[in-house]
Amino acid sequence: MSALPPRMARLRFRAWHRGTREADYMIGCFFDRFHAGWSEDDIALFETIIEEQDVDIMAWALGTQPVPEAYRGPLMERMMRLDYVEIPR
Length: 89
Description:
The chain is mainly alpha-helical.
């Protein structure tokens, strides 16, 4: 993995250091898989989303809670697919 610009490196760290292993995998894998194709708006939205509680982010991604209006759109729809989560064995 090549060096990330400081802003993206902070986001990657924050995505992978959530507090629970499940959230680390969900949010960290999502970042790793898709960040390279994000627009400035996507990056700003992700920065906002990851300030939310892990249980909320996971509930939105799993579809057990409605996604707040501010977070609805392609980025969250992509997160809800959950096909990016890779759990090391």
